[in-house]
Amino acid sequence: MSVAGGLPRAVERAVAHHCEAFQIFAKNASQWRGRVVPPEEVRAFRRAVDESGLGPVVSHASYLINLASTNRALWTRSLDAMGDELDRADALGLLGVVLHPGCYTSGEEGRGLDLIADGLRTLLVRRRRQKTMVILEHTAGQGTALGATFEQIAHIIERMDGHPRVGVCLDTCHLLASGYDIASPEGYAETFRLFGRIVGFDRLRVFHMNDSKRPLGSRVDRHEHIGRGHVGLEAFRRILNDRRFRRLPMLLETPKGEGKATGPIVADADDLRNLAMLRSLL
Known about the structure:
Blueprint: H1 7-16, E1 22-24, H2 39-52, E2 57-60, H3 72-92, E3 96-99, E4 102-103, H4 109-126, E5 133-137, E6 145-146, H5 150-159, E7 166-171, H6 172-178, H7 185-198, E8 204-209, E9 211-212, E10 223-224, H8 233-240, E11 250-252, H9 269-280
Helix pairs in contact: 1-2, 3-4, 4-5
């Protein structure tokens, strides 16, 4: 949900769309520095969430953050930015911050994974009294992006000594694009058998429900409306009716219009269609 016009407007938009849970950017996703959020706006957001009964609520970290970088200046800047994301999310009472693990660009895969884990462990040690989680998002594996295999996700968690405040987000588009065949019944069963063995269902905190413009194994991250891509409706039906996932938030990241900062809130027609399509599969 867009936070245009202030954080409480995101809650109003979620209510207008008949959401049960939602995701926000707690700061501009394309900038390093975010605006200072007045305490009264934080209180208004938390009060609106409580009164609406919505939850859990998560934020998505800035796309600029790259904790896998071997460039010390970029790594340090990313560490500071992720720390700010955690502080904002904790102040807002969010479940966690969803993070794309990072790209190893000029380094090596193993070194990149270690840098991610070491940075996140440092941030959580410094924030012992906070409750907000780091939620690692499984990626499509585009370019040198890390986190496209369950083994890579597990490596990060293991190097963090299995920290209890580290969770995982599975994105249906990313799963298919990275090579996990959730579109077929056999591939679906095998995908989640592997996830349970390698990562563990106790780490799974969030689903991103997106169809994919590109086919299985393309390693290209292009989201599509539900039922109009290569994931297909049957895969969504299986996830929605899988008892292992019945209590998990499932969030849309499908194409949409931007919310206006002022004036009446109008529900996005595409969001309404996608939500209705998913609910019809329950």
